[in-house]
């Protein structure tokens, strides 16, 4: 009986070792996955910050460029008045200088000319 009990004890120990080993591997994998998730979230937050900074800087640069373009255009228009003949003057005054109202955007979206045929046809249309 001692041989049978020794074999039984060895089988129980083997099963117990396998179960404990699996549990420890799962906990290690879970902690590794949690760390990877935290790292990915931190990278996402950092990337979103970089995107926000990029667009803010780009908007500031575009505004500066527009102002510089208007300054250049005004300069060219003023100089062309004094240097070129009136009939040959290709530069016109900017709308804010002439008192004319700028072109107003329509209050409605553009029409979708797909109608009942074409790639943009909606399934509910005949």
Automatic annotation (TrEMBL):
Q: Which residues form a coiled coil?
A: 23-50
GO CC annotation, single: plasma membrane
Q: What is its main location?
A: membrane
The protein's superkingdom reads Bacteria
**What ranges does the record list as Low complexity composition bias?**
115-126
- Biased amino acid composition, Basic and acidic residues: 78-89
> Which membrane topology term applies here?
Single-pass membrane protein
Subcellular location as annotated: Cell inner membrane
The record's listing under Pfam families reads: ZapG-like (PF06295)
> Entry's InterPro entries?
4HB_MCP_dom_sf, ZapG-like
Instruction: Map out region (Disordered) in residue numbers.
Output: 78-126
Its GO biological process terms? cell division; regulation of cell shape
Keywords, alphabetical: Cell cycle, Cell division, Cell inner membrane, Cell membrane, Cell shape, Coiled coil, Membrane, Transmembrane, Transmembrane helix
- Membership in a protein family: Belongs to the ZapG family.
Q: What is this protein called?
A: Z-ring associated protein G
Which species is the source of this protein?
Answer: Aeromonas simiae
């Amino acid at each position: 009986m001692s041989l049978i009990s020794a074999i039984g004890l060895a089988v129980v120990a083997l099963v117990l070792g396998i179960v404990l080993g699996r549990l420890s591997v799962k906990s290690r994998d879970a902690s590794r996955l949690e760390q990877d998730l935290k790292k990915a979230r931190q990278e996402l937050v950092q990337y979103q910050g970089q995107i926000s900074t990029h667009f803010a800087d780009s908007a500031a640069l575009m505004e500066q460029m527009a102002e510089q373009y208007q300054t250049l255009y005004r300069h060219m228009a003023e100089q062309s008045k004094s240097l070129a003949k009136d009939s040959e003057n290709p530069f016109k005054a900017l709308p804010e200088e002439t008192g004319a109202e700028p072109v107003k955007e329509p209050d409605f979206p553009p029409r979708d000319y797909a109608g009942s045929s074409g790639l943009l046809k909606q399934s509910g249309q005949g």
